[in-house]
Amino acid sequence: MDDLELVTELAYAFDIDPEAVIAAAWEREVPLRDVAAAYVRTLRYLRLHGLEETANAPVTELDSRPPGTFDPRVVTMQDEWWIDTFRRPHRIAEMSPDYVVNVIAHLQIRVLDIVEATGMDSGRDVNEWLEATPLVRALRSRLTDLGDRL
């Protein structure tokens, strides 16, 4: 079984669209072997901790969720890391201005998905809510520290 077949099967096992994961990996030049390895780490995490434990796992327990999934707690419960779709951590204090801008734009595009995933009160303006989250405040602060503004 080659890496493409392995990633496809593992994505299906987690009820994730393999085409989306593979396309994102291709676009970001992430080797499929690395994506497969991340799925295997999630399987190991589940075996060791059980499914119930994943819901309560700290945000920094990267293996608690498989690649191709979004953890809304990254946005709402911490301000130190950006964790990408492949479950790779990026320390905000070390991110380039371009990457910070890209992450903010990604969050703005996906704000309705994020709101739905967090169960945020729908009576609130979603963009104001997003700007007030710990992650976006930290990203904006990073841009200010670097002397760049959106």
Name its key features.
150 residues, mainly alpha, 2 domains, two-stranded antiparallel ribbon, 2 strands, 4% strand, globular
Structural commentary:
The structure is a single chain. The protein is mostly helical. It folds into 2 domains: about 1-65, no CATH class; about 70-150, no CATH class. The chain is built from 9 helices and 2 strands. The protein has helices at about 5-15, 20-25, 30-50, 50-55, 75, 95-110, 110-120, 125-130, 135-145; strands at about 80-85, 90. Strands 1-2 form a two-stranded antiparallel sheet. The chain is globular. The mean pLDDT is about 90.
Overall structural class, as computed from helix and strand content, comes to mainly alpha
Task: Calculate Rg over CA atoms.
Answer: 16 Å
- Which blocks of ≥5 consecutive residues have pLDDT under 50? none
Give the domain tally: 2
DSSP E strands, number: 2
N- to C-terminal separation? Answer: 45 Å
Approximately how much beta-strand content do the residues carry?
A: under 5%
Amount of helix: 55-70%
Protein topology:
Elements: H1 3-13, H2 18-27, H3 32-49, H4 51-56, H5 73-76, E1 81-83, E2 89-91, H6 97-109, H7 111-118, H8 126-132, H9 134-146
Antiparallel strand pairs: 1-2
Helix pairs in contact: 1-2, 1-3, 6-9
What's the gist of this structure?
With 150 residues, the protein is mainly alpha-helical. The chain has helices at 3-13, 18-27, 32-49, 51-56, 73-76, 97-109, 111-118, 126-132, 134-146; strands spanning 81-83, 89-91.
